[in-house]
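In response to reviewer comment 3 from the previous cycle, which asked for concrete evidence that the modeling workflow produces usable outputs, we include below a single protein chain processed end to end. The sequence was submitted unchanged, and the resulting structure tokens are shown without manual editing.
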Amino acid sequence: MVAKLAGRLVAASNEPNRPYRITILNSPAVNAFALPGGYLYVTRGLLALANDKAELAAVLSHEMAHVTARHALARARAQQKNQLMSKVMDNMVGKTSKTASIKAKNLVTLASFSQVQELEADKEGIGTTFRAGLDPFAASRFLATMGKYAQFLTGQADNDPKANFLSSHPTTPQRINTAIYTARRFGGPDVGDREREDYLAAIDGMLFGDAPDEGFVRERSYIHPHLRIRFTLPKGYRLENTSKAVLAVAKDGTAMRFDGVSVSPDVPLTRYLTSGWVSGLLTGSIREQTINGQPAVIAAAKAKGWTFRIAVIRVQSATYRFVFATTQPNAAYESAVTETINSFQTLSFQQAQAFKPLTIKINTVGWGDTLQSLAKQMQGTTDKVELFSILNDIKEGSQVKRGQMVKQIIAQQ
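The workflow returned the following structure tokens.
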């Protein structure tokens, strides 16, 4: 489906004879990017978030526009110029406050240059989408969905221009407004096709979220069926599974990191803890204990206004670390640390096998179905109505309609 859609867009692009190689990355992240030479990459996380072929076309044509406009080469030259200027300034006048000011201005200029490229690619991509017979308003629609999904994951909206002045991408509201203005040049909201049903049929059954070999986030729990471990955070924490660590953050700014480290089984955990990787370690706080049958060492640290709580746990030849951090330590913080660490446990083979990856299931809304009843069937999140609404681009206050195809997230059968 993706290959056929890309071929359709290439034929409608400014360079219809340019070859492209498209790779779908097995990642839950919502992302797409292009490399010089016509290499396009799109994640399955992005495919899961899109709701029709027009939205995916908006993404692919945007990346194609980067290739045809030679944006990567132009940016590389701009970066090279920026680095050369910084080096010259350092050699000529040293690292003074004036030098730092000039460097800062160069960074802002480089970021603005990249933002201009993104808006140019948006505009060109919308034109290509329209020429391919698809809805030109899909770009603004999908940008809005991405913004909502990012806010769902992080709890922060992408609408603060101060936070984005050094970002390579414009703020989401800015891109949406530009995309709507560009699409209006081609007609009204119904000017192109969406091809929603064909698209949803193509992604039916696709993996959603984390792959089994990276562990699963299930509501406030992290489970790794291959390593056969799990733990749960208290209410108020939002978990994210990344390639390097499992991260969590609470609304008060408290953060948690969980990862695995390579430590020889012959090295005592206390010796590893005091080996220098913890800044501001309070040696008097170190204590050894057992957590659900596994040897562990617990400690505290303070550095640069932050208060840390650290736990190192050994499971046979594997070693895992919890690091909690806050600027406002209190009883709730201490309770959250204790509850999380004490929830760490190993799983039997049968228990581990019971956890299945999540997949996308396409259903048709029937008699008596409501947004709430369909969302209730979702798995993998506590915020079921919000995630269901985002995945299906259902506006606040709206309801599903009988006969409408919708995405649900369920455990693999």
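The chain is about 40% helix and 25% strand. We consider this sufficient to address the reviewer's concern, and the full set will be provided in the supplementary archive.
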